[in-house]
């Protein structure tokens, strides 16, 4: 089971490949409150297959 969130400091080259972008381009989200912070977080999208 994967964690809901990943600490930036724990990302490595393999994660970089999975994300499809260099880690140096990622900005750690900052916010005044939790709502503002969550809105800035990266959300991994899963592919939805159409079975029709």
What does the model show?
This protein is mainly alpha-helical. It has a domain at 8-39. It is built from two helices and no strands. The longest helix has 7 residues, at 13-19. The chain is globular, with a radius of gyration of 14 Å.
What oligomeric state is this? single chain
Overall pLDDT confidence: 79
Strand/helix succession = HH
Largest sheet, if any?
none
Helix content: 25-40%
Number of helices: 2
Instruction: Catalogue the unreliable spans.
Output: none
Please compute the radius of gyration using only Cα atoms: 14 Å
- Beta-sheet strand percentage? under 5%
Q: What is the strand tally?
A: 0
Query: Outline, from the CA principal axes?
Result: globular
Distance between the termini: 30 Å
What's the arrangement of secondary structure elements?
Layout: H1 13-19, H2 34-39
Keywords:
25% helix, 52 residues, globular, mainly alpha, 2 helices
Concise overview:
Helix content is 25%, strand content 0%.
């Amino acid at each position: 089971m994967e964690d809901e969130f990943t600490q930036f400091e724990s990302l490595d080259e393999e994660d970089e490949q999975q994300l499809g972008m260099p880690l140096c381009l990622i900005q750690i989200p900052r916010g005044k409150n939790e709502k503002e912070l969550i809105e800035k977080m990266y959300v991994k999208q899963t592919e939805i297959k159409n079975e029709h």
